[in-house]
Structure formats: structure tokens, C-alpha cells
Design a protein that fits this description.
The protein has 190 residues and is of the alpha+beta class. The radius of gyration is 18 Å and the shape is elongated. The chain binds flavin mononucleotide.
Length: 190
């Protein structure tokens, strides 16, 4: 990418994403992750766990039994939506999801999941299963090794970014696409 302004916008996006992953106050830590579900479009709020510009990776964590996993397996194309209401800034990042389950990636990530959150993976029923009582959807004790068996990391390799900044006098939109070696950039009508 030769244009300095495009480079600075793209660097700013990745830096903010990396910072947001560690900052619970940053709205970009809670993006929407959308994909083609088994029965049409499906979107959900997820905690974005990490952003790595050098590998173009965004990651999230989930239960391997959840419905979204079957959707990603059927069609791994995903769209992340980040919005900052205070700055009126939107980023849409698209790419492909790779599911990690009981491998080096999940083994490294699991210890950093707080114990209280690890129990979320220990529910007897799979996420989305119908239950008679909401209490059946909670696990507050149990075998954490079994919980780990349900733990999955979703790594998404990003190949396109659409950035939109609403301003009081003018709006600006830029689109970035990865050509296999470099990011290509263009301005777009907001
Ligand atoms: C603030 C917030 C954060 C969430 N973070 C996650 C998350 O990191 N991982 C996850 O699997 N679900 C998370 N969820 C729940 C999902 O939005 C969704 O309801 C759940 O994963 C089931 O989705 P599915 O039926 O598409 O598989 C979060 C929900 C909210 C409201």
C-alpha cells in the first residue's frame, strides 16, 4: 500500500482492535460475529479475544457444541462488525473461520480463561438445547477437565476490511482487501 493515509487508517484499526481485546471498556471488545448459519444468516455478540495484524487474525472462544460451530464448518466465511458509538466509527472485517479444538491453540488459551468462565463450558446440555428450567443451563461446579473438552477457539483470517467514519461535516469510508501479499486500498462512497 503506497498511500500513507490508507496505511495510517489500517494501522490504527489493527492497533485499536489489539487494545480493545484487553480493554473491557472498549466497545470493540464486543463485536458481532456473523456467518451463514445452518438455516440462513446468523449473528451473535462475541468477546473478541485477540487481534494480530501480522497474521491478520481475530480470535474468539466458544463451546464446540454450539450451533455456530456447525455453521462455520458448513461455510467458514465470517463477518465481524465493530461499532464505536462515541466515535461513530464502524469496522467490518471479513474472512474465514478456523476452528481449534483440543489442540495446541486451545491448550495454550484454556489457562487464561478465568475459572468462573471455565464452568460455562461444563454445562450438561449443549448451548441452544431446550431445557425445563434456566438453572439447568448453568454449571457452577463439576469437572473442569470435562469443561475443557467443550472449549474451542475460533481463529479468523481476515482478508477484507471496510472502515466507515461518520463525521459532523463529512463521512469517510475506505476499503482494504488482502491480495495474498499486501493490502490494497480504495476510498468508497459512505
Ligand atoms: C456480552 C456478550 C458476550 C458474549 N460473548 C460470547 C463469547 O465470547 N463466546 C460465545 O460463544 N458466546 C458469547 N456470547 C453469547 C452469544 O452471543 C450467543 O448467544 C451464543 O454463543 C450462542 O450462539 P449460537 O447459537 O450462534 O451458537 C456473548 C453474549 C453476550 C451478550
Amino acid at each position: 500500500m503506497s498511500n500513507n493515509e490508507f496505511q495510517s487508517i489500517l494501522d490504527g484499526i489493527w492497533q485499536r482492535l489489539a487494545k480493545a481485546a484487553k480493554d473491557p471498556a472498549d466497545p470493540w471488545r464486543l463485536p458481532t460475529l456473523a456467518a451463514q448459519g445452518l438455516n440462513g444468516p446468523s449473528a451473535r455478540t462475541m468477546v473478541m479475544r485477540s487481534a494480530d495484524s501480522s497474521e491478520r487474525l481475530l480470535t474468539a472462544q466458544t463451546d464446540i457444541r454450539s450451533t455456530k460451530i456447525s455453521g462455520f464448518r458448513k461455510d467458514p466465511r465470517v463477518a465481524w462488525l465493530f461499532f464505536d458509538p462515541a466515535k461513530q466509527e464502524q469496522v467490518r472485517a471479513t474472512g474465514r473461520a478456523i476452528i481449534h479444538h483440543d489442540d495446541d491453540i486451545t491448550r495454550r488459551a484454556w489457562p487464561s480463561v478465568p475459572e468462573a468462565n471455565q464452568y460455562n463450558y461444563a454445562t450438561g446440555h449443549a448451548p441452544g438445547a431446550s431445557i425445563d428450567d434456566p438453572a439447568q443451563g448453568q454449571a457452577t461446579s463439576g469437572d473442569l477437565a470435562k469443561a475443557y473438552d467443550n472449549f474451542a477457539v475460533i481463529r479468523c483470517e481476515i482478508t477484507a476490511i471496510d472502515w466507515l467514519q461518520l463525521g459532523t461535516t463529512a463521512h469517510r469510508r475506505a476499503q482494504f482487501s488482502w491480495n495474498g501479499t499486501d493490502w490494497l486500498a480504495t476510498w468508497a462512497v459512505p
